Description:
Order of helices and strands: HHHEHEEEH
Helix content: over 70%
Radius of gyration: 23 Å
Shape: elongated
Number of domains: 2
Strand order of the largest sheet: 2-1-3-4
Structural class: alpha+beta
Number of helices: 5
Amino acid sequence: MSLEDLRKAVIEKALLEAEEIVRGAQRRAESTVREAEEKKRAIIEEERRRVLSELGLEAKLAEARREARLIIARAKHEIVEELKRRTRELLESMSAERRRESLRRLLRESLEELRNCGFETTGVVIYVSPRDRSVVEELVEEMGVTATVVEDEKITGGVLVATPGAEVYVDNTYDTRLERALRSVLSEIFRAEQ
């Protein structure tokens, strides 16, 4: 097995593991939302029965609906935080080689995006996590790109590439990609609720 085949196998395995983690989180999220919906229905039904025998039926039902919305909102928040936590753990535990390959791919995508938009990639500024600076500098040299690599404490991983005049940024940081992925996954999960 060649080094390239081994690299591809490792990357493919890592992607499959990441997909399984996301699928597992999605299943847990769906289960949590179902449980919250059941709790919501139970609260509403309990409130409805109780209120029917009392005055102020409308006020009681409104309170039950508000409480149900709060339960669902809390459940959604917990799901989002758990997904973020697990994904960040996965990103932090990446091997050095896997992280290097990830940075290479994100850097290539960013440069290609700039080219596709008609911008020069000579003299770009690449913002990275202090942890990734030396790796990105090596990648830039390997790719033959003229760039300035700048450390940014706010970046936990990935790259943010800016044109020389800072007219355009391509944000391929792990945090931004995670937020995009979460929005996509969560919109699917919570769409069933509506």
